[in-house]
């Protein structure tokens, strides 16, 4: 085949493949355009996870009638003129590819009016081909509607995930820009149902509480640094919120960094944050954070990746140290002045009543927990030792050590039984039997207890409502992201429904949406915690049940 120039339609589709990966990519690009147009309110609507419809409305400056066709040409932009400007980019968009790329793989309609003009304009495009234009009355700003995304690229359409997954991706795009721009009012509707709204008050704390949930926000610390290393004459600023060690997740998906108002994915920044918690979190546990970094535009290169999600710093180590130092200072200040939390325990990775106080836990957190399982004898195990039996031998309870381990005597000597892990195992086995018999028993609450979830947690609860019903939860929707608990599983004892459900949802999201995973998560939160003093009769009852357990290890 001879060498030839590609047709413009082919070029547009290739460009779309680089920048537009899924519906959330469209939402990201359109939100960035709205922010660059000085919008103070941005409204997003989706249908069928964005496959069928995406609509982004803003009250920004709008597009002039004489420039609207040009706006849909590749490399047409109002944000950049000269190559040297690439080294100090201040806008979110700058390549002039977004609208052309989106239009190339969808049916697009835009209604826009520039704030200096009296009439607006409506323009339709089909697979990037300009269609009808007509003058319309419209408020200043733009409304861009994307229908049938990827209708002409079936391979891309086929690789989209479920509607729930695509909705969640869209939610996090909106949530992250709401965090980065608390002065802008955002609203997100999925299939006609409001999933997220921020007030535009300018208060970051308001948005953090809405994105992460009010209960979680109560366990987050303000992070602020005015003593960060200086870059020339301009300071590197760090501000935002990070969680206390007792509040954590099993994945990094609640760690959010923003550089000069741009949401970024940077492994070095994430590593700096997690290193600030070194010794404070158990392996596999990650904090929640929303941290804003401000720096001179020429200190960071945002022209690294088509999606602009990756950046490159002029001095990565300097930024790493600044983030680590700012978060450590916030954590240390909380320990010194007394944090507004119950208590927490590093060894178990879970919070609970009677756990060591925050300061004491931090002081001793570097000591490695020598007990990797909840029952082991005190004799060293030889390389040729026989396999441990599946059931426990009869044990005689002697007492409790450190409010964490039951000391028992058996045929092989002394046994140390981790009371948390043992109780967790017993509850899990009971839940498995209940599920096999049709569902776990529940008890009606004396009064219906309401709780509010973060928007993505509320969506996941809707998706997994059947699993919660099997576990004994009777839940009812009561407004945007708000639910009522009518009945709870019998094994729960005074725990707040919202805390329990948030914990289970976190496990389902990271470990799989299965009944087994849900049962294990419920057992985790209902089990006796380390740090809880037990009566001798309670310890004997626990050991007796463990001896009867078919899988005690």
Helices, strands, pairings?
Layout: H1 8-19, H2 23-36, E1 41-47, E2 53-58, H3 68-71, H4 98-104, E3 107-113, E4 120-126, E5 129-136, E6 141-147, H5 154-158, H6 163-180, E7 185-190, E8 193-197, H7 204-212, H8 214-217, E9 220-225, E10 230-231, E11 234-235, E12 237-243, E13 255-259, E14 262-264, H9 267-276, E15 289-294, E16 300-301, E17 312-313, H10 316-337, H11 358-364, E18 375-377, E19 396-401, E20 405-410, E21 413-418, H12 419-436, E22 442-452, H13 455-463, H14 465-471, E23 474-477, E24 482-489, H15 497-511, H16 515-526, H17 536-548
Parallel strand pairs: 1-7, 13-15
Antiparallel strand pairs: 1-2, 2-6, 3-4, 3-6, 4-5, 7-8, 9-12, 10-11, 12-15, 13-14, 16-17, 18-21, 19-20, 20-21, 22-24, 23-24
